[in-house]
Specification:
four-stranded antiparallel beta sheet; 7 strands; 3 domains; alpha+beta; Double Stranded RNA Binding Domain; single chain; 16 helices
Length: about 425
Amino acid sequence: MKQTITTELIRNLPPGPCDIWDTKLAKFVVRVRPNGKASYLVARGRGCWHTIAAVDELKPHEAREQARTLLGEDATHRTHGRDPIAERKKHRAAQTSITFKAFLDDHFEPWAREHYKRGPETVQRLRTIFEDLFPVKLAAIDAWTVEKLRTQRLKAGKVKAATVNSHLTMLKAALAKAVAWKLLPAHPLTEVKALKADKTGRIRYLSPAEEQRLRAALIARDEARQQRRDQANAWRRERGYAEMPGDNADHLTAIVLVALNTGLRKGEIFNLRWTDIDWSLAQLTVRGESIEKLEGSKSRQTRHVPLNREALETFKAWRPEDASDSYVFPGREDERLDDIKKGWAPVVKAAKLINFTFHDLRHTFASKLVMAGVDLNTVRELLGHSDIKMTLRYAHLAPEHKAAAVARLVAHGA
């Protein structure tokens, strides 16, 4: 039958099977199948059809525009002696033959390295976590396959629900790029929902006694290093050798004090340059974007963090005479520092801190602010959280606010 394909027609489609040919655009058709499902199609030749989409995915005018584009491409290609139908069949065959591993190797990894701050790490995690998907055709990955893998990992007991959710988000993001690059017709995991998990998560922060032990361990470490340096130089002087230059201070104590007083992430501290510190305003800038890779804040938003007295004195004591635009805490050959595990682990052990990581210094900074009565939005801004939900994890550390709210009931009831 022939009829103008409109929204009203789509709402009241006749029972199938039948084809409805559009009166506005020749070869544009709505096909109703025996089961009642209907799709937009384009007739591209004798017995050859191209499905545009299901009728509930596009409005009639949107489908008609796609049909017009397809028909126009066919006309253009025919004038140049090309077979667009054969080309599309070949392209679809190539798409369906791509495995998940080939997708990571040839498509996602090159893109991630250029556009993700931690592109290589992201790709490596995908390879490690979803290795079982390597031989699977990209088009064959579906909700059931991923649900099965997720269940197996949970039963093994090696990961928690929150970790599995994080890995699912990573996989979904990768497959979303496959859809954007026309390697998949639609996202296969839209129906896979995150598991119920504790959103507050672990918040480990230093008690006053623990912080005192940590500071004492750092001082003891620096004194021991200085003593070894003095002994080595005395040995050198006796034998007429040149003494070891400079003092015995290294970056660890300064980095820990900066973390305790600013709440910066480890990577943000490693990224700091002397030009990021404003001495007159007593504040530092965490750059959202930078020319060099791997720099900038996690949220990619620039923020300014005020420096209290201890943080300011730490930077001043550490600053070299020729600071210029160099890294505040440089690694080898003045390159960006990449780790402090070798020095950090013995200090944690010496301070007798149980289940404590460097990132927990950031939790300590935030927790102390909240317990001091600083409002959560200010804490959010200082931490650089893009969403207040992240900062709400510290809300329980301000019990006086809840106590005051409950106390009002007594006041009103009196």
